[in-house]
Specification:
It contains three helices and no strands. By secondary structure, it is mainly alpha-helical. The chain starts with a helix and ends with a helix.
Amino acid sequence: MVNEKLVDEISARIKELMARTPAADIERNMRVTLSSLFARLDLVTREEFDVQSAVLARTREKLTALEARLAELEKTAKPH
């Protein structure tokens, strides 16, 4: 049977070693670099995009309804 305490201790030591490797520094530096790049690109989140898409869809529906209403009003306002 595997000693869980021993497995946990080994796992903790491996995590500790990995945190001190150059790979961990490279990962942190890449995250900072990418975050900076994305901030300069002025990107929006998926949630913000979805909200704006829904607003645009509602606006298009209203515009279509108003155009139809205007066409009807123009028909009735024209002298025959």
